[in-house]
Amino acid sequence: MSEWVTAFEKDTLSEDKIKVYKGQDKQIALIRKADRVYALLNECPHEGCPLKSGTLDGYVLKCACHNWGFDIRTGENVDTGEYVDMEDPRVETFETKENDGKIEILI
């Protein structure tokens, strides 16, 4: 069953920055881009590297370990070249909303 959880105060997440919410069984990377908040699992599906350590280029978050890129809006892998050895190497995404000055995630 999904539920909304409060991750952070709205003012603590700056534009183009990544902040990690640590839940009971998941770490979720939150990114503010164009005044909208995106949330995705903080784990690259390739070898589990934390995406928080990566770099953001537009709407693409590049994993620091092997440079795989993921669209923060959809979780889709944008580097589907020959080196990608997984059938669907996407990252799980989560719905977000801002409520009473707080950022909430649907987990």
UniProtKB/TrEMBL annotation:
Residues 4-105 form the Rieske domain. Its cofactor is [2Fe-2S] cluster. Keywords: 2Fe-2S, Iron, Iron-sulfur, Metal-binding. It comes from the Archaea. InterPro entries: Rieske_2Fe-2S, Rieske_2Fe-2S_sf. It holds the Pfam family Rieske. Gene3D superfamilies: Rieske [2Fe-2S] iron-sulphur domain (2.102.10.10). GO terms for molecular function: 2 iron, 2 sulfur cluster binding; metal ion binding. This is Rieske (2Fe-2S) protein. It comes from Methanolobus zinderi.
